[in-house]
Amino acid sequence: MRVTIADVARRAGVSKTTVSRVLNGKSDVDADTAHRIREVIAETGYVPSSRAVGLARGQARTVGMLVPSLTWPWMGMVLQGAVDVLEADGYGVLLYTCNRGDESLRRFAVQVSASAFDGLLVIEPENTLDYIAQLHSKGLPVVLIDDRGHHPGFPSVATTNREGAAAAARHLAAIGRRRPAMVTGIGHFGCVRDRSQGFTETAAAEGLRLDPRLVFGGDFTKECGRTAVNEMLAAGLDFDSVFAHNDLAAAGVLGALRDAGLRVPEDVAVIGFDDVPVALHTEPTLTTIRQPLREMGEAAARLLLSHLRGAPASADPLVLPTSLVVRDSAPSI
After folding, report:
1. Which residues span the domain enclosing 251?
2. CB 289 within 8 Å of CB 184
3. Which of 231, 246, 257, 277 is the most buried (most CB within 10 A)?
């Protein structure tokens, strides 16, 4: 059952008007009372009606957006897609990051209880999915962007990670590569499992030999790509291609191969994943699997707006397709 403002008022021993004044940031409630009300809000998980709070403030039509950090290479593309759709419909956007971990999340929890956003778009910060699901179950419309294979049970937008990785394996087979290496992402992400399975299964079906020693656990950074290549070369392992789980790691792979005197693509072909701007600025330019990042932001915003207009929320993810983008690091024959 959803907690109401009356429940908060009763537990705090004040009137609904007093609770409303605290929610709306009024300064005429004494500090001790305001603190007690905020504690009750935090304890009960109360989520105020955005429209009611917005009207009280003389504001409305605002969407919150919670993200891990703005430093992720593809974050700006997703954000821009969402913002374009929301602003075109007359909505403002409040952006929250989790750069400080639990401290950031605590501050966000206070804001979600006291602020007037109609709904929330989320690119999941680490270990927050249960909390976000609770917000949705208590009545806050939420859409998750890039579900990482979690399938959370509320609206989400995902992409075809498994199929994208399979396309990378098929392309390497088509251009005559037979001994691929793979640099993965963070292991507990569902998208990483999907990319690993898609590549491994398709490589086997295409007759490519994926030596387990050529699978390097990475963390989506340029450094992990460099380290993977250096370790494989130091061990004397033979490989003629590398599939990296993101473009940043692929850029590190290219740099390490160049430093080792290996030619790309003549000696080693390289494929990344994402198609972020760096893919056009590597040397050589990067063949990659394009995630429809801007489109994912747009689609998530449209889903949220549809929900705000009364359409039922779907538990099935909206899945947008990936596509192979061929450039100089692994050109077609």
Report:
1. 161-292
2. no
3. 246
Query: By the 8 A CB rule, do 266 and 294 touch?
Result: no
Same domain as 224, residue 129? no
pLDDT tens profile 212-253: 999 999 999 999 999 999 999 999 999 999 999 999 999 999
Longest Cα–Cα distance of the chain, Å, equals 75
How many CA within 13 A on the CB side of residue 29?
20
pLDDT at 314: 82
- Token readout for 13 is 């021993």
Cβ proximity of 227 and 193 under 8 Å: no
Number of domains the chain contains: 2
| Cα torsion through 276, 281, 286, 292, rounded to 10 | 20
- CATH number for the domain spanning 197: value is 3.40.50.2300
Tell whether 21 and 140 lie within a shared domain.
Answer: yes
Inside any domain, residue 327:
no
Instruction: Look at the pTM and tell me if it is higher than 0.70.
Output: yes
DSSP strand pairing (287-290 vs 323-325): antiparallel
Terminal alpha carbon distance of the chain: 61
Distance CA 119, CA 211 (A): 47
User: Do both 11 and 153 map to the same domain?
Assistant: yes
pLDDT of the residue at 77 = 94
Q: Are residues 135 and 60 in the same domain?
A: yes
Within 10 angstroms of residue 99's Cβ, the number of other Cβ atoms is 13
**What is the per-residue pLDDT across 40-67, written as a single tens digit (0 to 9) for each?**
888 887 876 554 555 454 445 889 999 9
The length of the chain in residues reads: 333
Q: Is residue 328, in this structure, part of any structural domain at all?
A: no
Q: How far from 207 is each of 96, 99, 328, CA to CA, in Å? A: 47, 44, 24
Two tokens, residue 102: 């639990």
- Give yes or no: residues 13 and 151 share one domain: yes
